[in-house]
Specification:
Elements lengths: L9 E5 L5 H8 L11 H4 L12 E9 L2 E10 L8 E9 L8 H17 L3 E4 L6 H9 L17
Parallel strand pairs: 4-5
Antiparallel strand pairs: 1-2, 2-3, 3-4
Length: about 160
């Protein structure tokens, strides 16, 4: 991963309901195999049990006013001690990849989680073939906890 700054005009902000169409467009660039699986299925693979996380913050990265990426951070209920957050999705628009934008988004979320919500840790899942993301997460200090296998039997 290069250490270039994306640009001096980088801004990261919390998404608002007015950003839904931008978020959906960014989601369309995801290469995740579960991208098209119904959300009820996502809780079993590629996400976490929604009963353990009550709020999701979506961060939007803009370069010179253009939406370039997003990242989602799920927070546990306030009463949970030793709270652990969960990074749900990090997506960078293809035209802005290779500029270190994902790293900036991740660091922004980490800082937000640590300083604003005093989280003790952050978890995430990553696909084994997503070598760029794996390299980024390991560079940022994430440690592999376990591997899972996901199987499907096609019936048609």
């Amino acid at each position: 991963m290069d250490n270039q700054k994306p640009t001096t005009a980088l801004a990261i902000r919390l998404a608002t309901p007015e950003d839904i169409s931008l978020i959906e467009k960014l989601d369309s660039f995801s290469a995740s195999p579960t991208r098209d699986i119904h959300r009820d299925m996502e809780k079993y693979f590629g996400s976490v049990d929604p009963s353990t996380h009550e709020h999701t913050f979506i961060f939007i990265a803009e370069i010179a006013g253009i939406t370039a990426g997003k990242a989602e951070l799920m927070l546990p209920p306030a009463e949970v001690t030793q709270a652990v957050g969960y990074v749900k999705r990090v997506i960078v628009h293809p035209e802005f990849r290779g500029r270190g934008l994902a790293k900036h988004l991740m660091q922004h979320m980490i800082d937000f989680a640590h300083t604003t919500y005093k989280l003790k840790a952050i978890d995430l899942h990553v696909w084994d073939k997503n070598h760029t993301a794996i390299r980024l997460y390991e560079e940022m200090g994430f440690e592999l906890q376990h591997r899972e296998l996901y199987y499907r039997l096609p019936l048609e």
